Amino acid sequence: MAQITNIIPALLTNSISELTEDIDKVSDVVDLVQIDVVDGYFAPYITCCPAPQIAAAEIDMPYEVHLMVEDPITMLNGWRIAGAERVIGQIEKMPDQEAFVKKASDLGLGVGLALTLKTPISDIAPALVNSLDLVLLMAHEVGVQGVSFDDIVLEKISQLHTLYPNLIIEVDGGIDEETIVKAHNSGASRFAVGSTIINSDDPQAMIQKLASLIR
């Protein structure tokens, strides 16, 4: 079965056992999952699994981490040791975007920057764009799954795609069969999808369906 590369299961949980169960649900059809890391300060929620716990779990699946935390640069080495392929940091709690990107790159990690729904794309340091794997745009409140997609993000996607047509734009939040098409048509090419996949009766079939809608 061909691996789907543009649908990224986004896993938000406070249980390592639930995390591994969710990975098992999707591992046959995708080449990567995203582990959401929330520290309770950036958003009113705490997820499981600091980097050493993930390392100990020996997850047999490539993964990236979305760091919704205070000063994410402090976590980079831990996630390198744990085996993450990419780190995506929220710029709102990042004192120095350049330092974050440089350290991640120096550690051999792929790197992306993420923006909340309310953060303008002008807050991205333009000089860093060519050093990024992607920019992630949140389409709803940070750290919560199962809430509605906000169409405000569509204009941000369009603006970012116009400015940087070769940049990979990932959208995270409220992605379903309807909103994935709208986001794709606005210029997004990668989609972090949480509850729509994990809560479906057949997560693998849902991933395949979402991918088919944006071919």
Automatic annotation (TrEMBL):
UniProt keyword Phosphoprotein present: no
Organism domain of life: Bacteria
Gene Ontology process terms (BP): carbohydrate metabolic process
UniProt keyword Isomerase, yes or no: yes
Pfam family, one: Ribul_P_3_epim
Keywords for this protein: Isomerase, Metal-binding
GO molecular function list: metal ion binding; racemase and epimerase activity, acting on carbohydrates and derivatives
InterPro entries cross-referenced by the UniProt entry: Aldolase_TIM, Ribul_P_3_epim-like, RibuloseP-bd_barrel
Protein name, UniProt field: Ribulose-phosphate 3-epimerase
Organism from which the protein derives: candidate division WWE3 bacterium CG_4_10_14_0_2_um_filter_41_14
